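User: I'm writing a tutorial on reading structure tokens. Could you give me a worked example: one chain, its sequence, then its tokens, then a sentence or two explaining what the tokens reveal?
Assistant: Sure. Here is the example chain.
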Amino acid sequence: MRNYELTFIIDPVLSGDEIKATANKYIDQVKAAGSEIVYINEWGLRQLAYPINNRSTGIYYTIEFAHETGALVDEVELALRRDEKVMRFLTVKLDKFGVKYNEDNRAGKIGAYKRQKAIERAARQEEEKKNRNNRKGGHRGRRR
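And here are its predicted structure tokens:
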């Protein structure tokens, strides 16, 4: 099985139903070709790095799927190119490291070390602040 990740941006001026229908159209196309859908991520409305078709925002979707051959990718990309509702798309073939990264990211393991260190640092700072306040409080009003 080959693993792929398809990310596309849908025009934000469409109604909510049209956006869902457009996304489901490509999800169904991937499923109909015999692919296994690993994960679907609807990012929602995001700011674009640069204007596309006079739009500064777009609705992002990511579909991670596994398929036996790469023939499906050409069919889906052709449909995406022809669809005026889709502003941009990108299909990436994932290697074993990309698959592992996505699994770890969904499991919450990515960035966990940094989050833990930030929590520990905040606790230390709070403890130091508390100790400083205790030391200051005992000497107040006793100066000569």
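What the tokens reveal: The helical segments are 16-32, 71-82, 96-107, 112-139. The domain at 2-94 is CATH 3.30.70.60 (Alpha-Beta Plaits).
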